[in-house]
Design brief:
Blueprint (H helix, E strand, L loop, with lengths): L19 H16 L7 E3 L2 E3 L15 E12 L25 E9 L3 E2 L11 E3 L11 H18 L4 E5 L4 H4 L25 E4 L1 E2 L2 E2 L9 E4 L4 E2 L5 E2 L17 H7 L4 H4 L18
Parallel strand pairs: 3-7
Antiparallel strand pairs: 1-2, 3-4, 4-5, 4-6, 8-11, 9-10, 12-13
Length: 288
């Protein structure tokens, strides 16, 4: 009849899979980036490496192979178990723990060529075991992601120096986070910050031993930082703050108007523009 006794198979998650911005990123950025190096990949057919014909071999300038590593994060629970099995007619219901139980997250890198990333002698790997949750290891934040990537890069440089490597991560928020001191227009003042208002900057997590610190209530401890310098079109750095020896605005934030003037905008044309309009709905006269 074509039926088999088994769990119903589940497909990939569809949440947002066909959203316009997701489709655009997938079609215009991700796929072209992957295909860019296809002549340098090993090709596998039915689990076996496909040996190309002589005329299909990479040219001398592209003899270095490219290996693609995928970042994998999987979470397992103490009460994970099979839900379908052969049960004898004499068996009765047995009490079991409520809920999924404690979790353990496993993060690692995997490739078709080498499997899970580890040293050539098998003594060192990049696998991370993480007990996510309040009162445990906290949460696998962007800081942990950066640390994980750094350990992978170090191992790849040491043990796989004859190949080039691409690491692919999904679009989870922790993988897309900006730098703590990245430029942000949120609540940015139009002119120099008033004297006595303290440092104007961005709130960043306090990091200790490559991990964010939490207070007694489990909340992340924050500190205010200068925003990082930006760059002019020619690559010259532009500071967003006046120098400490400035006669009037020592160390203070320059404000949007001064920053734009330094970038070539006409002061007379922008001085009457609003920094922000209520509900972001500006009248035509306030648009530029």
């Amino acid at each position: 009849m074509g039926y088999r006794w088994k769990c119903k198979p589940n497909g990939q998650f569809v949440d947002g899979h066909e959203r316009d911005d997701v489709v655009e990123y997938r079609q215009k950025k991700y796929i072209p980036a992957i295909l860019k190096h296809r002549d340098k990949y090993k090709v596998f057919i039915d689990g076996n490496e496909d040996i190309p014909e002589p005329n299909e071999l990479p040219s001398p300038s592209t003899t270095r192979r490219v290996v693609v590593w995928y970042h994998d994060e999987s979470t397992f629970y103490a009460n994970d178990r099979k839900c379908v099995q052969w049960v004898h007619e004499s068996e009765k219901a047995v009490p079991k723990p409520k809920g999924k139980g404690q979790s353990l997250m496993v993060a690692d890198f995997v490739s078709a060529e080498y499997g899970w990333l580890q040293s050539k002698d098998g003594k060192k790997s990049t696998r991370v075991l993480f007990r996510a949750g309040k009162g445990r290891d906290g949460y696998f934040s962007s800081e942990e992601i950066l640390g994980h990537l750094a350990s992978a890069a170090q191992l790849l440089r040491r043990d796989y120096p004859d190949e080039d490597h691409i690491i692919v991560l999904d679009n989870a928020p922790t993988h897309l986070k900006r730098a703590e001191d990245a430029l942000s227009a949120c609540r940015m003042s139009k002119g120099p910050t008033p004297d006595g208002n303290g440092l104007w900057g961005v709130m960043a997590n306090v990091i200790e031993n490559a991990k964010p610190i939490c207070d007694k209530r489990g909340k992340l401890v924050k500190e205010k930082k200068h925003m990082a310098d930006t760059k002019f079109s020619d690559g010259t750095p532009q500071s967003l703050y006046f120098p400490d020896n400035h006669p009037e605005f020592s160390g203070r934030f320059k404000g949007m108007t001064n920053i734009l003037v330094e970038r070539g905008f006409n002061h007379a044309e922008i001085k009457n523009l609003r920094a922000e309009c209520p509900k972001f709905q500006c009248p035509p006269s306030q648009l530029s």
